[in-house]
Amino acid sequence: MSGPRVSDFAHAFAVRLMQHLVVPTFVLNSDRKVIIWNKACERLTGVPAERVLGTSDHWHAFYEEPRYCLADLLALGKTEALDTLYVAHSEPGDSVHGMKAENWCVMPQVKKRLYLAIDAGPIFDEDGNLLAVVETLRDNTEQKLAQMALQSLAVKDGLTNLANRRSFDEKLEAEWLHSQREGVPLALLLIDVDHFKLYNDTYGHQKGDACLKAVAGALDEQVFRPADLAARYGGEEFGVIMPGTDLDGAMHVAERVREAVFNLALPHGASQTSDRVTLSVGAAAIIPSAEHTSAQLVEVADGALYRAKHAGRNRCLGVTMGSSLGATL
User: Based on the structure, what is the number of domains in the chain?
Assistant: First the structure.
């Protein structure tokens, strides 16, 4: 008699201990039914234990649509689904020792979007049969937002909020390799604010910064395909990378950007081209090959920009790259 009483006491104590852990925790049995949903889990999710105990409805606490939680994947052995369900996770190979994952969860009951760090660990009996899976949760939202802010600082230009030069260079190299592999065109725009030094000398650097922000805003509105990248290339110069785009398409975007800035009607009394701020644009396009490099594409676009400026500014000039490294269209 003493054996069962000790065992019952140990079981009751373990359940009570888990119920009062400060770490949000829930436990699924081998049939994926909730057998423990502790107080901290109630506070995190806004879902009371009585709503989920004895059910497989625990997903309601984290997502708006039915989907597996980490404990479900561990119980079912569906570790191949980790990539599609979680933004980050441990290697799924040896799941008998548990798994870790991270994910944005919408938390429907508390009306919050939280970034959760999740651990799931299996409990086996003496014969190796799965008895239960314990899932613990940690709210890492503040840390994730801080990390995202730091990453944004690393890739964004502080003044214009466009991509910075580093992001531009990395994107160009990646798209060059991808376009070469797929045999598709790649286009590049280099854009210069006409007579910007005179603008700064006339209106001051604060107005100059405001001008660059306005130009960047117009550029961002006109470069809207997800695959394209608009960046501050340096000083008053901007760049646009457009995968899967030939010269005709690049020139269309170039003209659209030039017109958008012209229509801002930002006064430029010192300009030798117009009474307002204008742009000169050089465009270049190529189907990348081993014969050429991404640096040569930049050189050709820069050459087109130079000729556009010396042809009177406030205009776009395009070049398609071939074996002769640049034939003007």
Answer: 2
Task: Tell me the CATH number at 120.
Answer: 3.30.450.20
Backbone angles phi, psi at 62, to 5 degrees: -120, -25
Q: Which two tokens stand for residue 254?
A: 């170039």
Span 135-139, average pLDDT? 96
| pLDDT band at residue 7 using 50, 70 and 90 as cut-offs | low
Give the domain extent around 66. 2-145
- Does residue 68 have a pLDDT over 70? yes
pLDDT tens by residue, 167-186: 999 999 999 999 999 999 99
Q: What is the pLDDT of residue 96?
A: 64
CATH number of the structural domain spanning residue 251: 3.30.70.270
Tell me the backbone φ, ψ of residue 118, rounded to 5 degrees. -125, 135
Which residue type sits at 40?
A
Give the pLDDT confidence score for residue 5 in this predicted structure.
Answer: 61
- Between the CA atoms of 244, 246, 252 and 254, what dihedral angle is there, to the nearest 10 degrees? 80
Confidence check: pLDDT of 14 > 80: no
Task: Quote the CA–CA distance of 228 and 80 in Å, as a whole number.
Answer: 32
Residue 286 has phi, psi (to 5 degrees) of: -160, 155
